[in-house]
């Protein structure tokens, strides 16, 4: 049916990727991050550049996921006379019955043969092949820049709030006490506790370690 054909064509994967990308970008602007602090005093240079970079990554993603990676058609398999090429005739694909040039492969997901097949990307629902390989690498480079910049922007929001420092001190100290098999009260008031006041600073009668 139509619903199955729409979602089977990668519509759901592509939509989820685009929506999630812009949602994370919106969160970085709404949260108290470096982007928002520069936007408020009228310094839109970095926010605009970041949005443009995200836009380029989304456009490259859609282009690579929707383009023909190099599918081999029966009428234009690009075959030459074997006598002229002086090589054996390429084998025929057992699935789509077209003759496969060298370095091509049949993709089970796309159900097509692809020239200079690299791999099938499930995040794009498309193959990476002869026509799309360079664009795929460009997309990965831009996406890496977006991710690294986004992580830096997110870290500025955590540093500004400072809420993680008390949490780290509290929870980190508890993990340390758990490793010693002691409680906060025993650690803070060991000089007043009868069964601990005569123990050394590093001694714990409840520690079963050898």
UniProtKB/TrEMBL annotation:
Cell location: Endomembrane system
Entry's Gene Ontology cellular component terms: endoplasmic reticulum; Golgi apparatus
Membrane topology type: Multi-pass membrane protein
Keywords of the record: Acyltransferase, Lipoprotein, Membrane, Palmitate, Transferase, Transmembrane, Transmembrane helix
Annotated protein name in UniProt: Palmitoyltransferase
Lineage of origin: Eukaryota, Metazoa, Chordata, Craniata, Vertebrata
Domain notes: The DHHC domain is required for palmitoyltransferase activity.
Residues covered by the Palmitoyltransferase DHHC domain: 92-158
Record-linked InterPro entries: Palmitoyltrfase_DHHC (IPR001594), PFA4/ZDH16/20/ERF2-like (IPR039859)
Protein family according to the UniProt entry: Belongs to the DHHC palmitoyltransferase family.
UniProt catalytic activity: L-cysteinyl-[protein] + hexadecanoyl-CoA = S-hexadecanoyl-L-cysteinyl-[protein] + CoA
Cited Pfam families: DHHC
GO biological process, one term: protein targeting to membrane
An example Gene Ontology molecular-function term: protein-cysteine S-palmitoyltransferase activity
Record flagged with keyword Transport: no
Transmembrane domains' residue ranges: 6-29, 49-67, 136-158
PANTHER family documented for this protein: PALMITOYLTRANSFERASE ZDHHC12 (PTHR22883:SF301), ZINC FINGER DHHC DOMAIN CONTAINING PROTEIN (PTHR22883)
Superkingdom: Eukaryota
EC number in record: 2.3.1.225
């Amino acid at each position: 049916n139509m619903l199955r054909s729409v979602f089977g064509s990668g519509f759901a994967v592509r939509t989820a990727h685009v929506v999630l990308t812009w949602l994370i970008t919106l969160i970085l602007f709404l949260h108290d991050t470096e982007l928002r602090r520069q936007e408020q005093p009228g310094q839109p240079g970095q926010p605009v550049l970041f949005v443009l970079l995200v836009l380029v990554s989304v456009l490259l993603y859609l282009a690579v996921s929707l383009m023909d990676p190099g599918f081999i058609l029966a009428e234009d398999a690009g075959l030459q006379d074997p006598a002229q090429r002086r090589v054996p005739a390429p084998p025929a694909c057992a699935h789509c019955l077209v003759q496969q040039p060298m370095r091509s492969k049949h993709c089970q997901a796309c159900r097509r043969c692809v020239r200079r097949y690299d791999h099938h990307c499930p995040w794009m629902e498309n193959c990476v092949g002869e026509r799309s390989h360079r664009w795929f690498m460009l997309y990965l480079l831009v996406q890496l820049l977006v991710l690294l910049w986004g992580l830096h922007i997110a870290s500025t929001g955590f540093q500004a709030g400072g809420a993680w420092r008390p949490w780290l001190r509290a929870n980190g100290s508890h993990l340390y006490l758990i490793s010693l098999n002691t409680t906060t009260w025993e650690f803070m008031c060991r000089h007043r506790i009868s069964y601990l006041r005569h123990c050394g600073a590093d001694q714990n009668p409840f520690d079963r370690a050898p």
